[in-house]
Structure formats: structure tokens, C-alpha cells
Amino acid sequence: MRAPLTGLAPVPVPSRTQYVMEHLTHAILTGQLPPGQPLVETELAARFGVSKTPVREALKTLAGRGLVVMSEYKGATVRTVDASMARSVYDVRLLLEPEALRRTVTAKADLAGARAALERADAAADRADRSLANRDFHRALYLSCGNPLLTRMLDDLRDQAALVSTVAWEAVPSWEHEAAEHREILARALDGDADGAASLLRDHIEGFVRRAFPAVENQEGQVQA
């Protein structure tokens, strides 16, 4: 049984593709459309009150962002999250995000956005709101790193990382643990300890995947998801 898209009403908008894309993104990242959910163009077009063209274009964009999988034979579906996908996304974050935070702290950038996102996460009414606040917290840490290309690369991973966290918290509700780590990271950053904040963030990213997707050691003792 397909999950309904609640609270949406078709309205005239300048860009129907953007309208469809924004609402589909929210529905996917909040779990209204779970991993593996078929995304039928005719049904979505009727739901949003648009033709199939903006729906098709929105699905193509979401496929490029890693939230949707397009198949010639099966059509479009919400991307399924497994340990391999999670490890791929978080490996790249592990390489880029701690360094971006280190640069943000070194530049003495304003971190008010990160503090606000933490407060939103603490006050979140459900997992969906918490996941979106979590995504905003991490973006606030790297947004002022001073390298636009680095920022764009991390932005490209944001939705996939949020999808991973949504699925992971469904199985292992470890958000309180992650929230405590967020507070420690932010406190270190506000103290101006760039290397310390980056180190805590690195441990945070690694720890999340290990808890949510238990690792297996290969014969050489290296950890693999």
C-alpha cells in the first residue's frame, strides 16, 4: 500500500517542476515516501494537479541528487538505503566535512545557525523534523568554510545523508546520542578549537554509521560496512 502525501494541495506556481520536486524531497526525507516506494508519474501528476512533464523532470533531478532510482523497466522508486550506500555517502562526508568545519572555525565564522538547528532538533515533534534539523546543523558547520566548491560538494550529499539518517533512526533511534555529540562539537567550535572540533566531527560521522549499519571486519582487520 503506497504511503499518502499528506498536507499537499495543488496550487498555481511559476515553476511546477520546482513545486513538485520540493514536495517530493520533503516527503522522501520525512518518510512519507519510504525507500523502495514506486513513484508513478500519472499518480503524482494527478496528486499535484500538473501534467506528467514537470513530474518527470522533478524525478530526473531527484535521481541526480541520489534520492530516486530510475529504471527503464520498473520506472522511478525512492532510493533504498543499505550499508553499502550509507558507507559510500558517509565516506565522502568523512573526507570533506571535518576539514570544512576546521576552516569555518579558523575563519571565526558565525555559528548561530548551528545553535538554532540544535534547538530545533531538541524541540522536534517527530523523527522527520529532527532529521531536517540535523541536516541544517551539519550544513551550518561547513557553510562558511570559505571554499564554494567544497560547500557545493557537501550540499550535494545533504539529501542522501538525510535519507540515511531517516532510515537508520527508524531501526535504531540513536538521535539522543547524536544530539549529545552535536553539542560537544559545537561547544568545541565556539571555543575556537578548530582541530578539536574537526576531530569530534570525524568521530561523530564514523560512529553513526557503525551504530546504524554494523560493520564487518575483513581478513586484514579493516572495517567495512
Q: How would you sum up this structure in a few lines?
A:
The chain is mainly α. It has helices at 16-29, 41-48, 52-64, 83-106, 112-122, 127-142, 148-171, 175-190, 194-212, and strands at 38-39, 68-71, 75-78, 216-217, 223-224. The strands form two sheets. Strands 1-3-2 form a three-stranded antiparallel β-sheet.
* Percent range for β-strand residues: 5-15%
Over the alpha carbons, how many angstroms does the gyration radius reach?
18 Å
The secondary-structure class comes to mainly alpha
Helix content: 55-70%
Biggest beta sheet attributes? 3 strands, antiparallel
User: Order of strands across the biggest sheet?
Assistant: 1-3-2
Uncertain parts: 10-14, 216-225
Total count of helical runs of at least 4 residues: 9
**What's the mean pLDDT score?**
86
Instruction: Please provide the ordered H/E string of secondary-structure elements.
Output: HEHHEEHHHHHHEE
Number of DSSP E strands: 5
First-to-last CA distance: 31 Å
Indicate the overall shape.
elongated
Give me the secondary-structure topology:
Elements: H1 16-29, E1 38-39, H2 41-48, H3 52-64, E2 68-71, E3 75-78, H4 83-106, H5 112-122, H6 127-142, H7 148-171, H8 175-190, H9 194-212, E4 216-217, E5 223-224
Antiparallel strand pairs: 1-3, 2-3, 4-5
Helix pairs in contact: 1-3, 2-3, 4-7, 4-9, 5-6, 5-8, 6-7, 8-9
